[in-house]
Design brief:
The structure is a homotetramer. Helices cover 21% and strands 35% of the residues of chain A. The model of chain A has no long low-confidence stretch (mean pLDDT 96). In chain A, the strands form two sheets. Chain A has a five-stranded antiparallel beta sheet with strand order 1-4-5-6-3, with helices on one face. Chain A has a two-stranded antiparallel sheet with strand order 2-7. Chain A has one domain: Thiol Ester Dehydrase, Chain A (Roll), CATH 3.10.129.10. Chain A has three helices and seven strands; from the N terminus they run βααββββββα. The first copy, chain A, is of the alpha+beta class. The N and C termini of chain A lie close together (10 Å). Chains in contact: A-B, A-C, A-D, B-C, B-D, C-D. Chains B and C meet through α1 and α2 of B and α1 and α2 of C. β3 of chain A pairs antiparallel with β3 of chain B, so a sheet runs across the interface.
């Protein structure tokens, strides 16, 4: 298992007239969470794309527990619980600056070849970087 | 059961560098789907808010089956399968212009009082408008 | 000179906590306006990209005269006043459903070759389609 | 004159299929720039709104000099050149991680009373905090 945390400051553009962060924006926070987790493994996602590997999202689930507000500083905790095969699943817990859990969810991504757009195995570098976190 | 369809044209701003519609945008399409369904019942969502009733999203789930592309004309089919209580669930099937199913999902919303921000029963007008679709 | 009108319905996601449409969203409305104008000339922008021609934005200016609100139906009036060279300028007037002018602006785009990313002349088909509107 | 710098990391959702950051997103970067500048003056914008003061955008201008790309770290340099009256103007210079100027622009905002939605003078605290930067 591997976890990482990153923070995001809520922008005005992310609020809606209810005074909450628009629920569709959380997909972006999830994206930031996994990007930063992968970066710390030494594999910026941009590098993967340069190697011709893309990771579209297959499925996403999100539970809104408490609202987030303008200018909140949200902590995104991202966890990978299993070594990826063709698919990779990320789990999310989001907290506000009071430490309250405000959102929980997961996203499943698939590795595809940028040209053929067909599923492929994840790159060796990623598996090698993840391996140490998944041995008991 | 009640269903309705509405169409949305994909904007350039909704694409990402993978050449697909960004997955986070589907939450907006779901929102458009339920807005238009409720409008046909004679109850524009804006009217609900003017009455002091808000409907934040509690939970959302989305499965991406095929990508959508720039300038595609997507049909959003929205279905309500059960009369709402404090919560209201919407089911979604999205189709591209070739009639292919590209996305499936659902969203659960809650009725709250705009001032107290506490859960409330749905307005009578909404229940009255829905009732005829839910008698066997 | 050539003008065209298209309508857009304001989405909940486009509002902010001020209760107005977020000002950054108007760039998307401008994009919709020019896309529909070009489509009516028989040249969907997607076709241009398939031919290897891209049109990034060089400059944009926007004046916010009155706010737009959730669920408003905005009319986007797009005008091209001069035949394009390497650059093409679009002028915009946006009206709400009461017919009030709410926003004015323009956007200048440049034609580039998708591979070299260098400026190029606009495609003949576009000039041919525009020509009849620019003879006195 | 007062200037401040803040950084923003480009999100995947901010790219479009051209492979660039979507031009409409720069309005958000401008917003981040002025938010952070005002915060350093000890006046978080959220506090202004709690006092009943809102700052909608009246006018925006943006010149796109070089594209920004996914995962770029953009420096937003925000400058206020004149003490605000009813209006406040912010000037922007955006730089990529190579230090290249990629975008220039400005935004003019107006102070309004949240209830009446009428123009008002800027709050004393803001003027007091700005004053030291505008004496020769």
């Amino acid at each position: 298992m591997i976890s990482g945390e990153t923070k995001v400051r809520i922008r005005y553009s992310e609020t809606d007239q209810m005074g909450y962060v628009y629920h569709g924006k959380y997909a972006e926070f999830y994206e930031i969470g996994r990007t930063e987790l992968i970066r710390r493994l030494g594999l910026p996602y941009g590098e993967l794309e340069k190697q011709g590997i893309f990771m579209p999202v297959l499925e996403i689930h999100s539970r809104y527990i408490k609202p987030a507000y303008y200018d909140d500083e949200i902590t995104i905790k991202t966890t990978v619980r299993e070594l990826p095969g063709v698919r990779m699943m990320f789990h999310y817990n989001l907290f506000n600056q009071e430490g309250e859990l405000i959102n929980q969810g997961h996203a499943t991504l698939i590795f595809i070849d940028g040209k053929s757009r067909r599923p492929i195995r994840p790159p060796h570098e990623l598996i090698d970087a993840l391996q140490p976190y998944f041995t008991e």
